[in-house]
Structures are given as C-alpha cells and as structure tokens.
Amino acid sequence: MMGIRPSGNSRSLRLPVHGLRGWHDGNSAVGDCNRFTRCAIFVTLCAMNDDGIEFHVEEKGLAILRVNRPGARNALNWAAQEAFAAAVMTVSQAAAIRALIITGAGDKAFVSGGDLKELRAHPEPEAGARLNRVMGTALAQLTELPIPVIAAVNGDAFGGGCEILTACDLRLAAAHARFSFAQVKVGLTSGWGGTGRLVRLIGQSRAMELLLTARLIDAAEAHRLGLIHRLAPAGEDALQTARAWAAELLTLPQQALAFTKELVQTASHATLVETYWQETKLFTKLWASPDHLEALTAFREKRPPIFNQQSGD
Questions:
Q1: CATH code of the domain containing 297
Q2: How far is 15 from 17, CA to CA, in rounded Å?
Q3: Confidence bin at 311 (pLDDT 50/70/90)
Q4: Which residues span the domain enclosing 306?
Q5: Digit-coded pLDDT (tens) for 50-79
Q6: What is the number of other CB atoms lying within 10 angstroms of the CB of residue 277?
Q7: 206 shares a domain with 164
Q8: Residue 263: which of 284, 244, 242 has the closest Cα?
Q9: pLDDT of 205-251, one tens digit each?
Q10: Using one digit for the tens of pLDDT, what is the confidence trace for 29-38?
Q11: Is the pLDDT at 139 greater than 50, yes or no?
C-alpha cells in the first residue's frame, strides 16, 4: 500500500464512513485512544489501484487528501471522483479534523480534471450529469467545511483541477506549476462550480479572459491575479509549505476560524446589512468563549495564549 504510514508509537484509526472503500486499520488496539486529537492518528485509503485517492489524518487533526494517479497526470476517473467525494464527506463528519490539505502525487500535476481516456467512452448525457453531480456536490461541500482547506498545488492544474483549486480557502503553489481553465478546448464549460467561484475570487473581467481563452498561466501570474495566495520557497515542495501553513492555523482558535470562514462566505453573496447582522451574531457568540477568555487571561499574564484547550489539545 502506498501513502503515508504511521511511525513510532502512533496508531491508525478506521473511520467508518459510507462510500469509502478499503480502509486500513494498521493497529487493532485503538480502543484506548478515545480522543484522536490527543494522539497521532492516521487514516489511509489503501485501495490505491482502484481509485487513486489517498486520505489520512495526522496529529492535531490535520487531514491530507492526495490524488495519486501520476500515470494519468492525476486526472480523476469515475472511481477517483467517487473516492474524492467520499473523503470530503468523511471530513465533514469528523469533528476532530481541524484542517485539510488537498494535493497531488509527484511534481508534474496537481489534478488534470476528469480522465478523458475513460470518460470519452461515455458520450451519453447521463455520464455528464453524473460527472457534474459527483464532483460539483463534493466541491460545494468542500467550500462549506468549517475548517481551513488548503490547496497545495504541486504541479499543473488543468480544467477540473482548477475548479478544485477555487473551492479551497487558501491556495499555494510550487513555482513550476501551471494553470489552465481548459474546458472550452474540449467543447465544455466548467462543470464543478468553478466559474462562479472564479469570478468571486479574481473578478468577472479576469475570469472571463481565462475561461474564454483557456490560456496557460504560470504560478507567478496566478499569484498576481489572486488565484494563488503564496508560492512555495525554492527547494521546498508545495505540500511541505502547506504543512507549515496548516501548523500556524492549528494554533489559532478553532471556533473563531470557523466563524470567520462562515462570515467571509456570507459577505460574498449577502448585502452589507445582512453581513453585519451575521457578524454581530457570531462576534457575540465568541465573546464569552473559552478561547477569547484565554486570550484575555494570557494578555493579563503577559504570556502567549493556548487556544483550543476545550478540544483536548
């Protein structure tokens, strides 16, 4: 089995979530670990040859979802799409997962959209509806997760790979990565919700140009456009950089992060008045929260705050 395995005295844990096949429980003696925020937990999808998706959860609730189909430039066939969607569902149902990184295997491709070698055998409308439904629903759910989602773009992102990118809260890329919303080149529009998200991310004019031309842009231009937030330092791969970014986020108050993400999402479609009332509600809820009280205590005691103590960290 490929993928990241436990080391030292860490334990593996099976997450019994419908839709994910081939979960590996690397250590059957996990019953004494009743809070997986307190010990190193790994969940690894082992049906690699069937679906090409790796998923595991590490210490402090950092989850990694990796597309591992380098022979197909990490394009998603039917099985990979279903497994990707099931992994997102797993994250939505696991309260102890506190951040998610999405990446691809190798250094050539992040995700190259749907696997045309398989999909070309299905020209019927029902196949298009299925593709739209599975990945469109998965990416919509991804945007609604109450945790930070980081895209670690390790290589080229084409077509649906760019749509996945737009569904992530924070986006970083290796310097050699390239990007193209290439759907128009195969006679399609975006199909996974990417157009609406792209317009909100970089504006209608810039989005129109990228979508109509399918132009290939490099990481530096993607950064200038705002499609990418950060570039990985020279000599450091995207996943390594993303882990460091996630480590910073994991030290921050989990509930405040969730409410801030909710508020930003609201502001993208609501009026200023509606956003203000949502802000008032969330701010008031947080005022007496354990993390805010800890921040006040730490300020008084002139020490760094220690957040998320109520979750067992």
A1: 1.10.12.10
A2: 6
A3: low
A4: 254-311
A5: 689 999 999 899 999 999 999 999 999 989
A6: 13
A7: yes
A8: 284
A9: 999 999 999 999 999 999 999 999 999 998 889 999 999 999 999 99
A10: 223 333 333 3
A11: yes
Strand segments, DSSP code E, in the chain are: 11-12, 23-24, 41-42, 44-45, 53-57, 62-67, 99-104, 109-111, 149-153, 156-158, 170-173, 178-180, 217-218, 230-231
Claim to verify: residue 222 and residue 303 sit in the same structural domain: no
Total-model pTM: 0.84
Rounded Cα distance between 61 and 74, Å, is 25
Distance CA 56, CA 22 (A): 13
Structure confidence at residue 313 (pLDDT):
58
Q: Measured at the alpha carbon of residue 16, what is the angle toward residues 15 and 20, in degrees to the nearest 5?
A: 90
205 and 261 belong to one structural domain? no
- Biggest CA–CA distance in the chain, Å, is 67
Looking at the structure of the chain, the number of domains it has is 2
Contact 83, 137 (CB under 8 A): no
> Cα separation of 313 and 308, whole Å?
6
Rg for the chain, CA atoms, rounded: 20
What CA–CA distance (Å, rounded) separates 81 from 146?
A: 22
pLDDT band at 192 (very low <50, low <70, confident <90, very high): very high
CA–CA distance, 205 with 17 (Å, rounded to integer): 41
